[in-house]
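User: C-alpha cells for this one?
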Amino acid sequence: MADTDQVPVSDPEAAAAAAVLDALNGTEALNATAKFVASPEGTALAYGSLVLMALLPIFFGALRSVHCSKSKNASDMPETITSRDAARFPIIASCTLFGLYLFFKVFSQEYINMLLSVYFFGLGVLALSHTLSPLMSRIFPESFPNKQYQLLFTQGSDDTKEEIVNYEFDTKNLLCLVIGAVVGVWYLLKKHWIANNLFGLAFALNGVELLHLNNVNTGCILLGGLFVYDVFWVFGTNVMVTVARSFEAPIKLVFPQDLLERGLGASNFAMLGLGDIVIPGIFIALLLRFDVSLKKNSRTYFYTSFLAYIFGLGLTIFVMHTFKHAQPALLYLVPACVGFPVVVALIKGELTEMFRTTAKGFPQEPRTKRIYQNS
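Assistant:
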C-alpha cells in the first residue's frame, strides 16, 4: 500500500511507492501520480470509499458462504483450500508473478494487456452474473415467466458420447448475463473506474463466498505464507512494481482522489488490490461459519475479525502517510485478523474448538483432524 502524492518523482522510493501491486494475490498499493497533490477532503473521500468497498464483499460474501456451505447443488459447491494448497500458494504466486515480469520484459505490453482484457471480460461477466443472481430472484415476483435453458456440448455418439459443457440457466440468469455483458463492454471500451470497480467487487465477493478454508490451521498457514510473500515482493525487489505498472485488469478497487475537482472524469486514483480483501475475507468467512456452528445466536468471532480488518486497513493507511513509503497491507491485516479472534477465543476458553473447525464451520472429530493435517 502506498501513496506518492507528496513525494518527488525523482525519488526512487516514490517510484516504488507509485505502483506496488501484486497481480496474483492482489496485494496492491494505494497510490496516485506525483504530479497531483490531493486535497485533504479528496484523500479522505478516496480512502474512506476504498475501505467501505473493501468491507462490502467481505461482509456479504461471508454471509453467502454460510448458505453456500450448506448447498446440495453441485454447481454451487465451494472450492476447499487444504493445508497443502495453502503452503504451496505463496510459491505458485511468486512463480506466476515473476513469469508475468519476464513476459512484460520480453513481449509487447499492449498485446499482453489485450489478451488479459478479453480473459477478464469473460470472468467478469460470469462473476457479476453470479453476484446479481440472488438479487434478481428477490426483485422478480414468483409469477414471472422464468423459463429454463440448457447449453449442452458433447463429443462422440451413443455409448461413447461425452459431455464437454453442460450449463443450465433460466431467464433471470440470462438477464444477469446481459447486465454483466453490458458492464464488460463498457470496461473494454472505456476502462472506466466504475466499471472496473463493479467487476472488482464481483470478483472479491465471489472469492469470499466460494473459496473455503478447511480449518483455522489452514487459514493461519495461508495468511502467514502470504504475509512473508507480500513483504518480500514489496521491499525486496522491483518485480512487483514493474508488473504493477504494466498490468491492466480489474483486479483492484480504485477511487479518484480528484473526484471533487474533476467529477467522474477524474484520473488520479487511490487503489486497493483484491488480494487484500479476499485473503483475509475467506478467513473471516470461516469464523462466521464457526459462530453459526456454536448455535449460540452470537457472531462474536465474525464481528471481532471484521473489526480487526478495519483496524488493520486503517493502520496501513496511517503508517503509509506517516512514513511516505509503500506498505504491504497484509503486514498489518494478517496479525490483526488472526490475533484478535485468537485472543477472544482464549478469553472464552474456545481456542481448541476453534482450531478444530472444518470448512463448513463444524468441529471435526480427532480422526478427521489428522486427515486434514496430513492433506
